[in-house]
Amino acid sequence: WLLAWGGTSYWELRRVPLGLWATGSRLRQEDFPPRIVEHPSDLIVSKGEPATLNCKAEGRPPPTVEWYKDGERVETDRENPRSHRMLLPSGSLFFLRIVHGRRSKPDDGSYVCVARNYLGQAISHNASLEVASKFLLTCVCFFFVEFFLLLVSWQCH
């Protein structure tokens, strides 16, 4: 149990086999809470393609980083070796392939990274990951091809 916390020191009480044990410590001057130095950006990715949501945090001691999607913690390869999501040493979240279907939970949503150490936590800006629609891409490409052909034929007369 953390008993007291004051500016540069803290006291902790632990239960041990022969009773209770109190310990105290002074914080090292160089320790500081986490801060996000690289926030993730919005992404639009095709289904089945790889993607990376970047996040970089600083702090001392170095913070641990976790990701949340739509308010729920994201499972990565650290908890499940079969996961298609990898937490990189930098804190970024790498997707081996973007999943978007009925058989598994889709990857599209709003993501934040949270960096923590014993002095506190820092939360990144929201970043949305959207799965590109093949129909939309086909329509846009078709429109530009038609427009380009119309423009070329107009100039040839």
From TrEMBL:
Q: Which GO terms describe its biological process?
A: axon guidance; dendrite self-avoidance; homophilic cell adhesion via plasma membrane adhesion molecules
* An MF annotation (GO) of this entry: cell-cell adhesion mediator activity
Alphabetically sorted, this entry's keywords are: Immunoglobulin domain
Q: Which residue intervals define the domain Ig-like in the entry? A: 34-130
Q: Which GO terms describe its cellular component?
A: axon; plasma membrane
UniProt keyword Amino-acid biosynthesis present: no
* InterPro entries (UniProt xref): Ig-like_dom, Ig-like_dom_sf, Ig-like_fold, Ig_sub, Ig_sub2
Q: Which Gene3D superfamilies did the record assign? A: Immunoglobulins
Q: What is this protein called?
A: Ig-like domain-containing protein
